[in-house]
Amino acid sequence: MKQILLMLIAVVMMGCGKKEPAQPSASDLTTAPQPFEETKAKAEAGDAEAQHNLGAMYFFGQGVGRDEKEAFKWWSKAAYQGHAKAQYRLGMVYDISNVLFELSLAWYTIAADNGNAAAKECKGIISNRMRTDQITKAEVLAKEMVKKNPKLINK
Fold first, then answer.
1. Are 153 and 117 in contact (CB under 8 A)?
2. Domain positions in the chain
3. Model confidence over 68-96: pLDDT tens digits?
4. Which of helix, strand or coil describes residue 75?
């Protein structure tokens, strides 16, 4: 698990298919930075945008100590409410596992369907590394996920 978390750090910092590491910044948040406690209160109340932002705050140590597990937890909560950037981040988490490509592609597909351009790019990149049967399984998985939880698509 620790190895996966370390790889998560590298992938989130670099993004899918990028050569240069990205520097953490306010652009990692979907709204202007707010105090940690205010963001946490909104996140706990169910605000998907605040949940994504809280995940980024935990991941990058903005206003709180770094905690990748908490970041994943909050990104997951936001993703299941249809937050495209959080869905993209989950796709990256599963992408780096090197065994969960189908789940990664499913999250990238859902995020791309919600308009996330980076997820669309990563979807193409990961598809090139997958077998046809894996791609088919991922497509079925994405459809099942959306059928089970229509909130995943925010259109």
1. no
2. 2-83, 85-152
3. 899 999 999 999 999 999 999 999 888 88
4. helix
